Amino acid sequence: MYIMSTSVLKRKAGVALASFALFGAALVTETAQAVELFGGIGTTGLEIGLGSRIGSNTGLRMDAEFLDYSRSFDRNGASYDTKLKFSTLGVYGDYFLGSSFRFTAGALIGQRKASGNGVATNGTITINGTTYPAAGESVDAEARFPSFAPYLGIGFGHAQISKGLSFYFDAGVAIGKADAKITASPGLVAAAGQPNIDAEQRNLQESVDKLKFFPAVKFGLGYTF
Questions:
Q1: What is the pTM of this model?
Q2: Most CB atoms within 10 A, among 14, 32, 84, 133?
Q3: Poorest-confidence range of 13-17, 101-105, 139-143, 157-161?
Q4: Taking a C-beta distance cutoff of 8 angstroms, is the pair 219, 172 a contact?
């Protein structure tokens, strides 16, 4: 599991806290409704946020979401150590049907990427359908999602009807395709040729292009003041 440095964590926490302070001040200024502080976990990582009703059927929320996840897999003769890393702000508008069920629209703003470093498992790596000697060689792959991704979803909670503790659940999708990139070590480029490296990158991009929607499923607790 990749661990962010203390300075990076402090900087990101500072930005999130400053954003929440401004957002909270705006909520207090614009509405007399109660304000909810919430936190949870899901496919977009850990989140902490603020929200409030701004009308009889509408609400506004903002959160900070952080995900740092690692796993390994094998592909084309290489073993990849991969990382999925999110560091985003989410801004959402809710439309309530009844007291708790809602439709949600918004956006994720910030960094979302998947990266991996691959090394040969049996002294060879397959590039564009052909196997090449690759002892001591490596290949890096990265898929970077758009820094602005529209979000659509449904959920329960964040109603801010009365003070106290409450549960929330969200299910939706962040919309946007990632850009893929492959970087091979010089020896592997010499063995396979840059045209084959480029063709392998196109193959990866075609696979990534199928992931037009990133699923966002979250749940957690909120406290309304």
A1: 0.76
A2: 84
A3: 13-17
A4: no
